Amino acid sequence: MNKRRIIWIELLRICACIGVIGIHVASQHFHDMPVNTSVWAVSNFYHGINRYAVACFVMISGGLYLDRKRTWNIKKLWTHSILPIAVAYIFWQVFYALYRSLTDEGLKFGTVAFFKRFLVMISDPYFHLWYLPMLIGLLIITPMLWEIVNSKNGKQWEEYMILLYLIFKILPYTVKVFPIPCKEHVMNVLNTVQPQMVTGFVGYYIAGHYLYQYGVSKKLEKLIYILGIVSISMGILFCYIRSQQKGTDIQDFYENYTLAAFFWGISVFLFFKNYVSKIKWNDKQEKRICFVGSCTFGIFLIHVLVRSLLHKAGIDSMMISNTFIAIPIVIALIFTLSFGAVVIIKKIPVLKKWIV
């Protein structure tokens, strides 16, 4: 039995990784297909139901890094936790900048235009790599958060901070996307206080620790499940309706800071904690789960490259006429190939420590 890793956490980590891939597969033709087509409607559906992924990733980190059993050493935090993430970010940022520059048919390698384009791409996080600087920001303030949530009144402080996060971050972002009367004035009132806590994800980070440490009552748990399912369903529906009205793709109703993503993410986290955790696994199964879980960071980093290469080979969410079936197939294929690539990289001494 693996004593250092918690199996339901590893399974949730794997599920969240699949969810991120699901978002990116669903988005392949989300912006270039007419919104009145079935392909777009299916993409919108998969785009929405996988929105638990980022919230769950952050909540997992919060649950583990803010655990009261941890002791924090600033030097160790920077050298063992932050530095590897920073190195991985720099490596993959440069890698993807070079890859995109080399595959741009309008650029010739070695020219001034190529070099300028390469530098521009390095300066701006590639579309999935934003998560790493955000996580670094959370880790930087983790020792301070740890002292707060593990103090004598830690539980009350967490409830207070989660409530503030819901009021000042989640609610204004959700209200912003609805066409309400006097919207500008309402938003001005809601944004009177704007506590931008590092990255905007600190509420999920603290919520993860709170749910991991204390959980919720059965009554509240049922309510959260209802809110999660209803809110994400309504988010998908509202995106579809608004997109038909505007004639362009809209995903505002289920993005990371909406009530839909908030309650949907918490619902998935609670389900794994309270139900998936009760599944019994033998030692061999636990070992395999933990190994796959340990590869999810690398899979997250490399899956965009795999997606791009498959797309160039004609394998994407529109490879067959039935997009509803095509998307899960492509998700599974990208996950499997990315996992295989990470397993190979993990056999290379230096690379396994710093880039996956």
Low-confidence stretches: none
Number of domains: 1
Rg, nearest Å = 21 Å
What class do helices, strands and sheet pairing give? mainly alpha
Question: Given the structure, what is the number of helices?
Answer: 15
Shape descriptor: globular
Would you count the extended β strands for me? 0
> Can you summarize the main beta sheet?
none
Q: Tell me what portion of residues adopts beta-strand conformation.
A: under 5%
Q: Which bin fits the share of residues in helices?
A: over 70%
SSE succession: HHHHHHHHHHHHHHH
Mean pLDDT: 90
- Roughly how many Å apart are the termini? 24 Å
List key phrases describing it.
single chain, 356 residues, mainly alpha
Which SSEs are present, and which pair or pack?
Elements: H1 7-26, H2 38-49, H3 52-65, H4 74-102, H5 112-123, H6 131-149, H7 154-176, H8 183-190, H9 202-213, H10 218-246, H11 259-274, H12 283-294, H13 296-312, H14 323-345, H15 349-354
Helix pairs in contact: 1-2, 1-3, 1-11, 1-12, 1-13, 1-14, 2-10, 3-9, 3-11, 4-5, 4-6, 7-9, 9-11, 10-11, 13-14
